[in-house]
Amino acid sequence: MRINRDDVIACGHADDDAETLIRGFRPLLLTGQCAHITIHGAPGVVRNLFIVGIIGLLLWFTTVIHVWSGELVISIGNSMDFGLSTMGPYCGIGFTFTGCWMVWDSKVGKLRNRDRFFQPLALTGNEQVLDLGCGRGPLLIGAAKRLITSKATGVDLWQTVDLSGNRPEATLEDARREGLEDRSWICLLFGPKSPLATLRALSCLSLVALMKPGNLPKADYGIDAPGVVRNLFIVGIIGLLLWFTTVIHVWSGELVIPIGRNSMDFGLSTMGLYCGIGFTFTGCWMVWDSKVGKLRNRDRFFQPLALTGNEQVLDLGCGRGLLLIGAAKRLITGKATGVDIWQTVDLSGNRPEATLENARREGLEDRVEVKTADMRELPFGDATFDCVVSRAAIHNITSTAERARAIREVARVLKPGGRALIEDIRHGAEYATVFSEAGCGEVKSIGSPLVAIFTLLITCGTLRPVTLLVKKPS
Prior knowledge:
The protein is an alpha/beta fold. Helices cover about 45% and strands about 20% of the residues. The strands form 4 sheets. Strands 12-11-10-13-14-16-15 form a 7-stranded mixed β-sheet, with helices on both faces.
């Protein structure tokens, strides 16, 4: 099993060098997750530093007050003299200073460095974060401070040799003092006594079992246009079969059509190879885009809206909840509502139960609502939503007049000052015109013109992708 969340923060203690610790994490790194490793000192080390430092200072001080000469003489044939009085102040000052620095770093420095520690991860607030060897929670609580909808989990063996007062009750008490007890939880582990061995074991374990909301599978947002994907694969396979049967000499690969005394020859073998590769590749790309690509693009999609977390968001043609759940992840007190007529020709497995199941898997069922409704006649009052989003849905309405009805409905349900973000594969100019006529004068095309031109060319003009950002006057 592998962690199906965005980031893993690993914090541990090691007596060995950093390279050895990283080798212990190799199974975790190979899963493609992000492991951020740091090494902390231990109270036993601090204690020993102070003991050696104090002994050194005492050796020097007892010489100053003439308790003894400060020389240690060892007779081995000839005598060897050790100036302990001189060594004492240097060792005393050095070791005591190092001990004081470690105490300062434990109490102040590591708290100051915590913000810098989290910067490479760029947490959005929706991740499930695991802190290995959490101790009394500096990283655990630091992560929880950056979370909105999810939780930080800490695991430890609670060895006091690694950290003073290291026990789960102290960690939870610190979380309570920071007001973050609802976003932090811990696991008590028993295992190898060597911290390094523990970290190595943890890196090989099914870490999902230690995380909330549990062993839930990933959300499944279905395959877009499954009929198109099926046809691409069918044509691609037929083309490859035509070519392959020529290679194994089943037939010549030529189709000859007599026309009077002449004939027309078609090299089906060559055509089959090119069509087979082209159509099969396109089908594979559509599957990849449905399973991976559109998830990667979702974060970029929401950036122009700059949601604060308090909005009411409507997703037109929500399908299995790609944008609906993406919006819900960015909300705190707001709510995301999705409407659809659940046509499986547009999306595989398109039904409201699948959408709600995906919301449950993401732990967002309390922030999501779905309704069966036609976008041309929305069951909401005027000025209900702060934001309306839609992706590749409105073009499924074949009539120009009916698409205009849907756009006017978007303008109607938007609050004054509300925004709409519409992404579709064609009809961009038409949408912009209707929005302007409906009173939403601020309409911007924010899609990449290069992508639009490239898509237009490779699809022979059938697809003209557009992304419109619309603002309703206040």
